[in-house]
Request: fold
Amino acid sequence: MAKGYKRSRILIDARFQWSFAIRITVFTWGVMLLTAALYSVLYSLMRGQVSQPDPFADQSVVTFYNLPNIMTFVNGNGGMILLGVGMITVVSLLFGLLVSFRLAGPVFRMRWVLAEMSKGHLSGDTIRLRNGDELQSLYDDICLVRSHWKTALAGMQQLCQGGGSAAEQLAQVHAQLLKFDIGDDGQRGKTGG
Reply:
C-alpha cells in the first residue's frame, strides 16, 4: 500500500534549488531592464514632440514646458527605485525557491527509487508524492517499471522453486527473460554471446 510523506525541509537539493531561484531572478531583472530601456527610448522619442501648456499663464501668453528629463526623475527617486528593485529581487528569489521546492522533492524521491532499483531492492512500499508536486507522471512511470521488474523477478524466482528438472526451470526462466530487451541492437530477448 502506498503511503504519503511530509517534507520537513525546504531545501532538498540546495544546488538545484538555488540555481533555479537565481535563474528566475536573473530573468526578472532582464525583464525589468528591458522594460526600463524601452520606456527610456519611448520617453526620449516623445520628449521632443509632446509639451504641455501652462494652465496658470496669462491667456495672452501661452508657455509650453517640455516633459522633464528622465535623469531628473531617476535622481529624485533613486531610493524608491532601489527599494522596488530590492523587493522584486526578494520576491523573485522566494518564488524561485517555492517553485523549485515542488520540483526538487520529486527529483530526490525518483533518484532514491532508482538507486534502490539499481541495488536490486524492489521490495517495500511505494511512497506517493505530495499533492501539488511536479513530475508526478514521471514518478508514476518509474514506480510502474519497478513494479513490473518486481513481478517478473518474483515469477522467475517462483519458477526456480517449483518442481521439474533444472533444464525445464532454465527454459521457463529463459522464456521470462525473453520479455526484456537487453540487446544493444534492439532485438527483444537477444543476448550477446
